[in-house]
Structure formats: C-alpha cells, structure tokens
Design brief:
With 185 residues, the chain is an all-alpha fold. It has 2 domains: 85 residues, Rna Polymerase Sigma Factor, Chain: A; 88 residues, Arc Repressor Mutant, subunit A (Orthogonal Bundle). Helix 2 crosses helix 3.
C-alpha cells in the first residue's frame, strides 16, 4: 500500500493504518529502535509507543514523507526509553553516536540551548542538500538511524575505514557550514 493511502487510513481513524504502516515499515522501525536500545523487548515496547504516537499525530499532520516522520517518532520514543531506563551503563552504539555528534558540534551546552532546534534542522538539511548521495546516506544512517560504521559500510559497499573517514570530513564540513551560517559551535 502506498504512503498516501496509509495516511488516509489514519485520517479515517481506521486501525488498519497501524497494520499497514507496520507491514510496510516495521522492519525499518525495529532497526531504529534496536540501534538505540539493543534489546528486543524494549524495542517492541518502544514500537508500540511509537504507533500510538503516530495515531495521535496523524491527523492533524499529513506527513510527507511518511517514513521520515514515522522514523523520527520511533527514534525519539527510543531515545526517551533509553534515557529513562538508565541504559548508559550498558554503553550501546546509540550513546557513541550521540556523543560523536554532540561532542563535535557542541561546546558543553546542548545544541538545543545554543540555537533553536528548527533552525539547526533547517541548516543541517541545507547542508545535506549540498552533499553527494553517498555522503547524505552515510550521515543520515549514522545520525538519524544510528547505524554503526560497519552497517553503513555493508550498505554502501565502502570499507569501515572509508566510512569513518567520510564521517570525519562530513562533520568538519558541517561545522564550517554552520560557522558560515552564523551558528557558533
């Protein structure tokens, strides 16, 4: 079923919407939750919370694209669960990913305190529009889906070292880009 029909089901308040989005994107959602939580039962609970979040968000939202909108909800629910359950002692790939970007971009305070989240999001999207397709895929998979460098390497056909090198360059370029936009890091 295409995304527009799934969204229409949400607007009709049909429970079939949850079934259809789960059929189409459930594997992606589980991958995002597992990348953050590393535990199947926690990831399952998180997905249930995310489906409820989607149910409450659509309507009034009519997301385009649906996958990105839904993955953001799944990721945020996963991060909330991660923080609330004290997973920090287990040191998952999620913590490394968050540390990697925030420590690189932030100067001790959270990025959200330094500038508006919306402005930062717009700047990052503009920055990614200027990158080639492979760099965009690497950045999004690492910092949105929280994939490991090894997983990104498998998906891209690059070596893990090449992925790490590209990530380093992308982060340096992003820092320069944000500096040019007047966002002090």
């Amino acid at each position: 079923m295409d995304d527009e029909k799934i969204i229409d089901l949400f607007f009709e308040r049909s429970e079939q919407a949850i079934t259809e989005i789960s059929k189409k994107y459930g594997g992606v959602f589980m991958n995002v939750a597992m990348n953050v939580l590393g535990n199947r039962s926690d990831a399952d609970e998180c997905l249930n919370d995310a489906y409820l979040g989607l149910w409450n968000a659509i309507p009034p939202a009519r997301p385009d694209p649906l996958l990105a909108f839904a993955c953001r909800i799944v990721r945020n629910k996963s991060l909330d669960r991660y923080r609330s359950k004290g997973f920090r002692s287990e040191r998952t790939g999620c913590e490394e990913c968050i540390d990697e970007l925030e420590n690189y971009l932030s100067s001790g305070e959270s990025i959200e305190n330094e500038i508006g989240e919306k402005r930062l999001s717009e700047c990052i999207n503009s920055f990614l529009d200027l990158r080639n397709e492979v760099d965009r895929m690497i950045f999004v998979r690492r910092f949105f889906y929280m994939d490991t460098c090894r997983d990104i390497a498998k998906a891209s056909g690059l070596s893990s070292g090449a992925v790490r090198t590209r990530l380093s360059r992308i982060k340096a370029d992003l820092k320069s880009y944000l500096d040019e936009k007047g966002i002090e890091i």
